[in-house]
């Protein structure tokens, strides 16, 4: 199916394609970069009229993946400029009203610090906001957005990973307990017993009782709970991680290839799950680790096989089993999110490759 180092080369080609088509300064300011949210880039894209806060967090994460794959001073400069670009474009600080957005950026900034680009004030601001986002409504959990009635997995999952990593880096007393409490709350309130997967979230009445459960099953929701369970590491959480991998393979993949969720925000969903499947494949002490690796390799192979080629390099589609098309108007291929999802998937496969994992034979 693939040969050694080929997956790293594919990830590198995806990196160059995204950067050449999407990266722009913020309002012409030196020392800043952001990803234009669409390509071909129109005038609102050139001035970053639409920001896409959490898309930028994943762009930063992808560049950090690339830096681990092939460290360079030039890429470190890109990381610094992206961090500054996010801060400049966000105008009022590091945070916004969406707890999921800031959790994603918090994770990227934690990784940036390990690469040598430290923003301790930003991480601290995000940590304070996330700690304050937990309430007893519906038995616990962090809100999706301030002053809203929704608590969901895509906010709680990355927050749990963030707190677990913060605890390991000497964070505030209780952060590890917060991570465990978040994962346990998700397990208790949003697990679909039939599939072993997690529903999207729930709406809460003012008195704290549950009004409605949103029973959509999204790939990235499974990815972040999987990532949190792997991060927590105990036997109990490892068993949960193994169950999630099995459930994903059975319900969210076809012949080992993850399903897509279209363009827009959905373009990131599969790539996020791929990130945490790869980490599970490397860290999880369970037989299901091999299945996680298989899902990563097969999905990345399908993504690559169905790419199309445009200026700058490969262009990926939102459904990895379907040939990508060159965007002429509003096709999802124009979205930065879709291209980042593809790049993330290839970096996940390259991570396994350089750690000695062998792709399945076709």
UniProtKB/TrEMBL annotation:
Matches recorded under Pfam families: Glyco_hydro_76
Domain of life: Bacteria
GO biological process, one term: carbohydrate metabolic process
InterPro entries, sorted: 6-hairpin_glycosidase_sf (IPR008928), Glyco_hydro_76 (IPR005198), MUG_Protein (IPR053169)
PANTHER family: MEIOTICALLY UP-REGULATED GENE 191 PROTEIN
Protein name stated in the entry: Putative alpha-1,6-mannanase (GH76 family)
Organism the protein comes from: Saccharothrix tamanrassetensis
